[in-house]
């Protein structure tokens, strides 16, 4: 019997062909589905990546201060000096001598690290970056802060100033020792050398400010040297700064000071005030100057060394000219009444004195923008201000000129 292979084989190949076609069509459909799925997945992936990138880019800048302080226990504080007061901004508990602070600042600012039970503070510039502070708690002021570019700029200058200060203090101590041994001429010579270096420290800072008007270090330095600047000088410094520094707290404070200084500048009428004398009796400034031809309003304190050194000069000018109409009105920034009265007696200050015993919060000092002492102003019989911060020979010369 002849096998009909042809027909049977033909049918098999036909079925196989149909199966292959069906599989091919199924593959194509799956491939299309896979392509669609891949496109959707890619779109979702790209969307997630964009969202992640957006949030990463818009995340607010911040700082992280890691403190590692040998032998430190208790709490650490970040503080600032605000309007003459120490203000605690943040705190962190030490664990095995380490603690951490997190936050953000608009601009680089001066902060201080304080450790509970320790009087010493570490000054450093904080900015939105990782910052490390390392040291020994018993020498907090010598700890090292790294990670802030602004602080590194400051520290480079401060190291130079510290070396100059050490040299000046060594001369100052030698001067004191020479004075105690009776070598007065040597003592005076050494004191002049010390004062020259102290003056040079101020000059170095003023030069730095002028050379770096866009540096965040410059406002801080100006805050250390502005004390005896009159309104026009201080204003010239502020006008030289880059506008980006306008919101720095020191700049804001100094602009307010300029406005106050202008109100008590030469040519203005001295703002009147009333304050109690040692017996508790109220004394009015205008009642004092109206009795004299010229009156020196003298801001001082018993604890102020430069004030006490200037007192003999004021006494000499007063004694030589009181008969001609020159008077002095002492305003003390003391807080201890007994020490205030003792200094008056010891220095033989025989003119009227007043004090509210509030120290640097003295109300009259605030009115006259007194931020360092000794400080004074000279007024005539009508209260018009005709001189400011006259000391040593300048006071003698001015009074001699007025009462000749």
Written account of the structure:
It is a single chain. This protein is of the alpha+beta class and 404 residues long. Helix 8 links the parallel strand 11 and strand 12. It is globular and about 70 Å long. The N terminus is likely disordered. The chain folds into three domains: 85 residues, Immunoglobulin-like (Sandwich), CATH 2.60.40; 113 residues, no CATH class; 129 residues, 3-Layer(aba) Sandwich (Glutaredoxin), CATH 3.40.30. The longest helix is centred in the first third of the chain and has 54 residues. The chain contains eleven helices and 15 strands. Helix 2 runs antiparallel to helix 3, helix 3 runs antiparallel to helix 4 and helix 5 packs antiparallel against helix 6.
Structure described in brief:
This protein has 404 residues and is of the alpha+beta class. Helix content is 48%, strand content 21%. It has 3 domains: 85 residues, Immunoglobulin-like (Sandwich), CATH 2.60.40; 113 residues, no CATH class; 129 residues, Glutaredoxin (3-Layer(aba) Sandwich), CATH 3.40.30.10.
């Amino acid at each position: 019997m002849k096998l009909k292979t042809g027909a049977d084989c033909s049918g098999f190949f036909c079925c196989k062909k149909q199966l292959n076609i069906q599989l091919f069509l199924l593959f194509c459909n799956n491939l299309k589905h896979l392509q669609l799925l891949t496109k959707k997945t890619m779109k979702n992936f790209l969307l997630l990546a964009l969202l992640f990138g957006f949030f990463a880019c818009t995340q607010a800048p911040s700082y992280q201060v890691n403190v590692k302080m040998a032998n430190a226990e208790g709490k650490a504080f970040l503080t600032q000096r605000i309007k003459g007061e120490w203000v605690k901004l943040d705190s962190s508990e030490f664990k095995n001598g380490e603690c951490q602070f997190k936050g953000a600042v608009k601009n680089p600012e001066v902060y201080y690290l304080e450790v509970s039970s320790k009087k010493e503070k570490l000054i450093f510039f904080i900015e939105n970056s990782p910052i490390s502070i390392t040291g020994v708690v018993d020498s907090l002021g010598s700890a090292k802060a790294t990670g802030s570019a602004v602080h590194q700029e400051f520290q480079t200058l401060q190291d130079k100033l510290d070396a100059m200060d050490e040299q000046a203090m060594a001369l100052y101590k030698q001067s004191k020792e020479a004075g105690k041994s009776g070598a007065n001429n040597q003592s005076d010579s050494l004191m002049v050398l010390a004062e020259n270096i102290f003056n040079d420290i101020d000059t170095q800072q003023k030069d730095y400010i002028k050379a770096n008007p866009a540096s965040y270090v410059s406002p801080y330095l100006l805050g250390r040297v502005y004390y005896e600047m009159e309104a026009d000088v201080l204003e010239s410094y502020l006008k030289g700064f880059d506008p980006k520094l306008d919101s720095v707290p020191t700049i804001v404070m100094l602009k307010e000071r300029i406005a106050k200084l202008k109100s008590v500048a030469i040519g203005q009428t001295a703002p009147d005030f009333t304050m109690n004398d040692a017996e508790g009796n109220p004394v009015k400034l205008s009642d004092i100057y109206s009795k004299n031809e010229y009156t020196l309003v003298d801001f001082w304190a018993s604890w102020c060394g430069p004030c006490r050194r200037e007192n003999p000069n004021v006494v000499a000018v007063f004694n030589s000219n009181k008969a001609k109409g020159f008077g002095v009105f002492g305003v003390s920034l003391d807080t201890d009444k007994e020490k205030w009265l003792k200094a008056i007696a010891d220095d033989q200050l025989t003119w009227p004195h007043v004090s509210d015993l509030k120290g640097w919060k003295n109300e009259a000092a605030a009115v006259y923008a007194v931020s360092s002492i000794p400080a004074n102003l000279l007024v005539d019989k009508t209260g018009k201000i005709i001189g400011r911060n006259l000391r040593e020979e300048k006071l003698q010369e001015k009074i001699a000129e007025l009462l000749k």
